[in-house]
Amino acid sequence: MEEIISKDETGMLMIPDISGFTDFVINTNMSIGKYITENLLKSIIDSNNLSFKVSEIEGDAVLFYKYRKIPSFDDTIAQIVVMYQNFKKELARLSLELTMEISLSLKIIVHYGVFTQYKIGKFEKLYGAAVVEAHQMLKNHIAKFPPYALFSEAFLKANFEHPAQSTIEYDNCDKCIYLAKIGYIYYL
Fold this sequence. Notes:
This protein is of the alpha+beta class. Helix content is about 40%, strand content about 30%. It is built from six helices and eight strands. Strands 1, 2, 3, 4, 5, 6, 7 and 8 form an eight-stranded mixed β-sheet that branches. The protein is globular and about 50 Å long. The N and C termini lie far apart (about 45 Å).
C-alpha cells in the first residue's frame, strides 16, 4: 500500500475546460488538433497567477487546486478573466497562423470542499466528494452557453456570509445569475 501523501484538507478546485472539444477532435487533423490543444492548455496553465497547483491535465481541461488560503472572490474573478483573455488571444493567434476557424470556447468551474491526495507510483491524484462534485458541475445544463465561470455555492459560502446578496455587485452582465443551492454563473 502506498503511503498517504496528505491528510484531508479543505481547499479550492478550479477546472478550466475547453468547450466544443469533442467535435473539434473528431473534425480536425490529428497533428493540427494536438498542436492547437497543447497551445491552448499551455495558455491556461501559464495564466495561473494565483499559484494553484496542477493536479492533472484531463484531455481538454486542467484540474487546478489550492489548499488553505483560498483566493477571494474578487481575485478569483480576476484570475478567470486573465485565463479567458489569454485563451482568446492564443485562439486568435492559432487561427491566424493556421488560417482556419477554431470553434472552441472556455468554461471554468470553481468549487470548494474537503479533498485529499493519494499516490500510485509516480502519479498523484486528488480524491474526495469535492473532486467528484466539481466534475459534475462541468456537465451542468444550467449555463446556456460558454464562455462562463460557474462558482459553486460551497465556494460562495467560503467567501461570503450571504452569497445571494454579495454577488449582486458582480452582475454587470445581463445574463449573470445566482441560483440558490447551485451557485453563481458569471458569463465572460
